[in-house]
Amino acid sequence: MAPLDGIKVIDFTHLLPGELCSTALSDLGCAVLRIEPLTATLGQMLPPIIDGHSLYFWSLHRNKQRISVDLKKADGVKIARRVIKDADVLIENFRPGVMDRLGLGYEAMSALNPGLIYCSISGYGQSGSWSEKPGHDLNLIAESGVLAMNARDGEKPILPSVLVSDYTSAMYAAIRIASQLYERQRTNAGIHIDVSMFESALSTMGIMGTALLYEELHPEVGHYEYPRELPNYTVYECSDQRYLAVAALEAPFWKTFCEKAGIPELADKVVKSVDQEISNKIAAVIRQKPLSDWISIFENTNCCVSPVSTIEEALRHPPVQEHGVVHHMSHPILGDVPQVSSPLSESMAASTAYDDRAEQSASVLSELGYSIEQISQLKLEKVIL
Predict the structure, then answer these.
(1) By residue range, what is the domain housing residue 288?
(2) Can you tell me the mean pLDDT for 239-261?
(3) Helices H, strands E: what count in the chain?
(4) Is residue 116 located within the same domain as residue 187?
(5) Disulfide: which of 60, 154, 212, 259 matches 19 by Cβ 3.0-4.6 Å?
(6) What is the pLDDT of residues 276-317, one digit of tens each?
């Protein structure tokens, strides 16, 4: 039994922060019902596309029921209100005000369902002078300082391959929701959770922010000393243009690293700041051998040295097999779809893709008490698929 079995979540999300949040809740056992538009969402069109289906989309929507409802029509809003009435959680990531204009804002839904935990994920929060600003992950990491710290001496900032504000806001939202579910057991009260993607990204700058606010220590762009660019905490190029990640911060790790790398003269050096002379000496040594040789040299040693792996290599590492990291989703068109499991679940059973939105819409409405005739009429009026 999963920790959140029996919790009903209504998912109005359409972009990664909200979609990933509801996926996390689903992996924890929640029954998630997605309310989607009649047309394809952006996520359904993102590559890779196989046989007309987005693997991006299906990596985020395992085990979620899906219905298509036109929320611009009164009957569509009625359907939404009926599913919300008995829900535990609602998640949305529209710009502030959109749900209110649809008649599905927090105040109205709280009156309908006083115990509802209503979570809004937006770029800059539900209030304040920036609340109406549009923005995607790139804008938010740009404004939060994250992007600037990925630059080097006046060079163009490097875009992280991980969507920092999307992932952090999704996880913060899931944590807030789970904690409020626990709190609700005591109070029986719902709440409006406001998660800002900007603030989520800014939180990753916490160490630097504290230093700046307390001591007015201004981290140099791209050269904040911890945890980046110390001689014992950086990446070195090998002779085959592959890379070795060295994180020998503690003295025992550093000593072992120096001995195994063939530079014992550095073993007694205390490294606490950027030291270009030491970095250059290590770089010259590491550049003498290919990555495979260094992997063999450091294998089973106690010094925090790792190859910079490709995704293909990462999926072949022993923990992937030993811990059952890959699970399988059954899709009616794509068949068996391997997926990387969530660490939120100790063990993930095979998951299901609910692909037929028309069938799901009819099934959900039937459970709500709609007759076959009413469902047919809603389809005819293009309220549902």
Answers:
(1) 233-314
(2) 96
(3) 16, 14
(4) yes
(5) 60
(6) 999 999 999 999 999 999 999 999 999 999 999 999 999 999
Domain at 309, CATH number: 3.30.1540.10
In a domain, 321, yes or no: no
pLDDT of residue 225: 47
Q: How far is CA 113 from CA 77, 82, 353, in A?
A: 15, 10, 29
3-state class (DSSP) for residue 151: coil
DSSP string, 60-82: H-TT-EEEEB-TTSHHHHHHHHH
Continuous segment of H or E residues that includes residue 31: strand 31-36
Strand order, beta sheet including 351-352: 335-340, 326-331, 351-352
d(CA 33, CA 139): 30
Q: Which residue has the tokens 């009616």?
A: 332
Q: Ramachandran region of residue 351, left (φ > 0), alpha (ψ -120 to 50) or beta?
A: beta
Task: Look at residue 240 and give its three-state secondary structure.
Answer: coil
> Model's pTM, two decimal places?
0.90
Longest dimension (CA), the chain: 84
Task: Please write the tens of the pLDDT for every residue from 148-187.
Answer: 888 877 789 999 999 999 999 999 999 999 999 999 999 9
